[in-house]
Specification:
The structure holds two protein chains of two kinds. Chain A is globular and about 40 Å long. Chain A has six helices and twelve strands. In chain A, strands 1-12-7-4-2-3 form a six-stranded parallel β-sheet, sandwiched between helices. Chain B folds into two domains: 298 residues, Rossmann fold, CATH 3.40.50.10420; 260 residues, no CATH class. In chain B, the strands form four sheets. Chain B has a six-stranded parallel β-sheet, with helices on both faces. In chain B, strand 17, helix 34 and strand 18 form a beta-alpha-beta unit. In chain B, helix 1 crosses helix 11, helix 24 packs across helix 35 and helix 29 crosses helix 32. The chains are: A alpha/beta, B alpha/beta. Chains A and B meet through helix 4, helix 5, strand 9 and strand 10 of A and helix 7, helix 8, helix 9, helix 10 and helix 11 of B.
Chain lengths: 182, 755
């Protein structure tokens, strides 16, 4: 058991480095409802409304403390979807070499919640970090979810160089915060 | 140039179609005058980022091999894959339409939108929809189209065609975008930074995303096994387009289909790195629509109950390309833009000159010809076959070869004339190539001009300098009068070699044969002699081959029949030396590249071709190899301190030399000998064989060269002028023209250190 854990630790480290290079922020926390709540609420700061798409894979109970915050909206209407400061979703996988998180866009409102607010918060389990993007296209990795799902590799915030200099924050989120669950 | 129009008065749309050569010349004038600085900055940023990104990808070459293999198989099995794809898309609950023509595709999409009573459609970036001119078709049906990629948004506002296949508006500087928006939107908002401009466009587009009834995307790749599409972007507009509206239409060319979603794993590593130089762009979507997620409806609107997806694949000439023995290779293209960003000419003028109505850059000619008509590919004349795109193409397309073939076809299409034919007879063109314009036959038959020129050197040189000679050269052969053709030497390399060899019979081993390439033989024989002295100085036996053309000059003019004839004549001559156990050394890098790379297209004897490719070397490449093996002390053998030209060098390697991986060794040798070497980092000097001599391309050639000259001036700033060194004969001429001081071959410097 010892060796795989070490590999995982180095993957977390590589993932963190890559995500920071891609201008995301990353924190690695313990897998408890209280720790997750604290981490998310710290990341969203004084956001007046927080969009939340309940997870498909992680236990719902893990988000229970966070979901109690009165600013959290789990069933946002259209107006709320386009006028909220932050969106919190699960990522079902992450990629160490690029610092990407993988978001299922066919599961409920995960796609919209991860896209429409200026701040995107993605919560990912450490054991779902794969070494390279290509690993998401293997049947023997994460039960082949990468071959079966509609998903998006999210690497940093949205960006453009079309207006001359590089600008972060275009149609998609302006900031990406990633919470890795140990 | 032929026109005196102010570059600012030419609009990109006017010169999009270049079947008339005048349009190409005007486009060059426009881009050099207005767009060049932004294009150079943006393409060189991509280029540098790509080099850095692929350097961090340890299995880059294996990935390229795999990508090539996948595409070769996919195109070979395309009809079967399309059938499989159709079944997959339908099984997913989507609709599938295979459009024969652009008009068919547009009509299908229009019908879908009309059926859904769509008033506004948002579009993600799709170059294929530029090819079909989809926006016009939809707008004619009363449907508003909102381009949501910021570059496409700029182009829609400006009414221009894309200038780059990945960053379609990269010819716009921030300042020009500000001016454009102020003019078109009549706004007083401050728009003086990238952030302000982005926010301005985002606010407009946010409303469109929310209000849109349908979204249209392209597809970077499509998997037949699952109906999956891969979409690569950074702005989030494609995610909006595919996630929010209830109706999603994806339009793409049939060549985007690969067998399996598993294949995406190879391309996802290569495509973003080869394009913008990012490990991944911000968003890479992997979808097999329709999505299962609930739909979005604008506040106050009823959300649609179900999602609908249409995959529209267009043929529009691609099946014909697939049958084409040469152009089928263009179907492997994954539109990454590495061939644009690594091209010195493209970096200087962009796709409004080096491009057509839709496609641009080195690969663009094949696409414009394949999806349109041959003469639409006229801009592919700007490909100098410098070959820098070749090692950078993730699917290993030999882009210069495609362009040389387009050139041949265009030569033929322009038709024969008695004058051209007579000229071809006199100068040595193959009969089929005698239809080429005189300028092309002049440069393509350099071999024979060199032969006459050196035989009657004093006469030839005097006549070139006679009053009126330059204007005659310009009007008849299109040689720019601002260029001086290098004078013919009194003695050829062959003659100098015979004189020196008199009485001295070499017995040294191992043996080399130096190819007396025609460029050195008739243009710079003293460099050739210097190279022989240097190789002999480390104990090698060197003989000189007879001077024969390797076909390079003809090939660069699209005179492929002439090139083939020449290649098939020189190959057996060189093979005999290999049979004697000699290796081949080639001084002129463009000739070396013929043996290493290009003969595979020209020779019909595979065994000879492979042996020539494997056993030919650039002289200092070979010297470095021997010096390593024998642990030769190069500082003792060629002490830089004895060089009368100084020890501080500025070295520019030749474009084709770099593609052959034969440039780094020269730098190693010079440094080991004790020289202080600063190197250039430009892709090409801009002369590129005969390109810079041509009247119509002189300005472009000098603008490309300016990049190199600026690097020399920067290097000179510390410690005074450096000695200029170049390995290619046309690089010499370009550096001489730009810097006005002597240029040496590396072998000449080494030879000068020998007692």
């Amino acid at each position: 058991m010892h060796a795989p854990v070490q590999v995982q630790e180095s993957l977390i480290e590589q993932f963190t480095d890559s995500a920071i290079k891609a201008v995301a922020t990353v924190e690695v926390i313990d897998r408890t409802p209280a720790a997750l709540r604290d981490a998310i609420l710290h990341a969203v700061g004084d956001a007046k409304r927080i969009l939340y798409a309940p997870p498909q894979e992680l236990p719902l109970a893990l988000f229970s403390d966070f979901a109690k915050d009165p600013r959290v909206v789990a069933d946002a209407n259209a107006d709320e979807l386009v006028h909220s400061a932050a969106g919190v979703t699960e990522a079902f996988a992450a990629v160490a070499s690029t610092g990407s998180v993988c978001i299922n866009v066919s599961y409920e409102r995960t796609g919209m919640v991860s896209l429409l607010a200026p701040l995107q918060v993605a919560v990912v389990a450490a054991e779902t970090i794969v070494p390279q993007p290509r690993d998401m296209f293997r049947a023997d990795v994460l039960d082949g979810k990468g071959l079966a799902r509609d998903f998006v590799f999210v690497t940093g915030p949205s960006a453009t160089a079309d207006m001359g200099p590089l600008v972060r924050g275009v149609h998609g989120p302006h900031k990406l915060h990633i919470i890795v669950l140990r | 140039m032929a026109t005196s129009v102010n570059p600012a008065d030419i609009t990109p749309r006017q010169v999009a179609n270049k079947s008339d050569k005048k349009a190409l010349l005007q486009a060059l004038r426009m881009t050099l005058g207005v767009q060049s600085a932004a294009i150079r900055h943006n393409t060189q940023t991509f280029n540098n980022n790509r080099y850095a990104a692929i350097a961090r990808l340890p299995d880059y070459n294996e990935l390229k091999d795999r990508a090539r293999q996948i595409k070769e198989n996919a195109i070979a099995n395309l009809p079967e894959l399309l059938r499989q794809l159709e079944a997959s898309v339908r099984a997913n609950g989507g609709h599938f339409y295979l459009a024969k023509t652009a008009a068919d595709a547009n009509q299908y999409i229009r019908d879908v939108l009309v059926r859904h009573e769509v008033k506004l459609v948002v579009k993600g970036k799709s170059i294929t929809s530029e090819e079909t001119k989809l926006n016009h078709a939809l707008e004619a049906a009363g449907i508003r189209v909102a381009e949501s990629d910021l570059a496409e948004f700029i182009l829609q506002v400006a009414d221009e065609q894309p200038s780059h296949i990945v960053a379609p508006a990269l010819h716009y500087s921030r300042e020009r975008i500000t001016a454009l928006f102020k003019r078109k939107f009549h706004t007083d908002l401050p728009l003086d930074t990238g952030e302000e401009l982005t926010k301005f466009a985002r606010d407009i587009l946010r409303e469109q995303f929310i209000a849109a009834d349908a979204g249209i995307s392209g597809a970077n790749l499509i998997a037949a096994d699952s109906g999956s599409i891969m979409l690569v972007e950074s702005e989030g507009n494609i995610r909006m387009t595919t996630t929010l509206p209830p109706v999603h239409i994806a339009i793409a060319g049939i060549e985007k289909v690969v067998p399996s979603r598993k294949d995406f794993g190879t391309f996802i590593e290569l495509l973003p790195r080869s394009g913008t130089g990012q490990p991944l762009t911000s968003y890479v979507s992997i979808l097999h629509p329709p999505l299962k997620a609930p739909t979005f409806a604008a506040p106050g609107k009823e959300p649609a109950k179900t999602r609908e997806f249409h995959m529209v694949l267009i043929d529009n000439g691609r099946s014909r390309m697939r049958e084409d023995p040469v152009l089928h290779e263009a179907l492997y293209c994954i539109r990454c833009s590495a061939c644009l960003n690594s091209c010195a000419n493209f970096e200087t003028v962009g796709g409004h000159a080096f491009g057509g109505e839709t496609y641009s850059g080195g690969i663009g000619g094949s696409w414009e010809a394949g999806t349109g008509t041959l003469m639409n590919a006229r801009f592919s004349e700007l490909c100098t076959a410098c070959s820098r795109c070749v090692p950078n193409c993730p699917v290993r397309i030999d882009i210069p070869w495609l362009n040389e073939n387009l050139r041949q076809r265009m030569n033929h299409a322009q038709g024969a004339s008695p004058g051209k034919f007579l000229f071809g007879e006199m100068t040595g063109s193959a009969p089929q190539d005698s239809v080429a314009p005189l300028q092309k036959q002049f440069f393509g038959n350099y071999n024979n001009f060199g032969k006459w020129g050196t035989r009657f050197a004093s006469l030839a040189n005097a006549s070139i300098h006679m009053p009126g000679a330059r204007s005659m050269m310009q009007s008849v052969f299109g040689v720019d009068s601002r260029r001086s053709l290098p004078p013919f030497p009194k003695k050829t390399w062959e003659q100098l070699y015979r004189e020196e060899r008199d009485g001295k019979q070499s017995t040294l081993k191992p043996g080399l044969v130096m190819l007396a390439d025609v460029f050195t033989n008739y243009g710079a024989p003293e460099r050739g002699m210097a190279a022989i002295r240097v190789l002999r100085a480390i104990g090698l036996d060197v003989v000189l081959s007879p001077a024969m053309s390797d076909g390079r000059a003809a090939m660069s003019q699209g005179m492929i029949d002439t090139a083939t004839r020449e290649a098939r004549a020189i190959a057996p001559m060189l093979r005999r030396y290999l049979d004697e156990g000699r290796k081949i050394v080639v001084l002129e890098p463009s000739s070396l590249a013929m043996l290493r790379r290009d003969f595979k297209h020209l020779l019909d004897d595979d065994d000879t071709q492979k042996r020539l490719a494997q056993n030919s070397f650039e002289p200092l490449e070979y010297l470095w190899q021997v010096a390593q093996e024998q642990q030769t002390n190069l500082a003792q053998k060629f002490p830089a301190s004895k060089c009368p030209h100084g020890t501080r060098l500025f070295y520019h390697s030749h474009c084709q030399q770099r593609t052959c991986n034969s440039a780094a060794q020269t730098i190693e040798v010079l440094r080991a000998a004790g020289f202080d070497v600063v190197t250039s980092s430009v892709e090409c000097c801009g002369m590129a064989g005969s390109f810079g001599y041509k009247r119509e391309y002189y300005e472009l050639s000098m603008a490309v060269g300016e990049d190199l000259f600026a690097q020399v001036r920067r290097a000179d700033q510390e410690g005074g002028p450096r000695t200029l060194v170049a390995s290619g004969i046309s690089c010499h001429e370009q550096l001489l023209a730009g810097m006005g001081r002597e240029v040496f071959h590396p072998a000449e410097l080494l030879a000068s250190t020998l007692a």
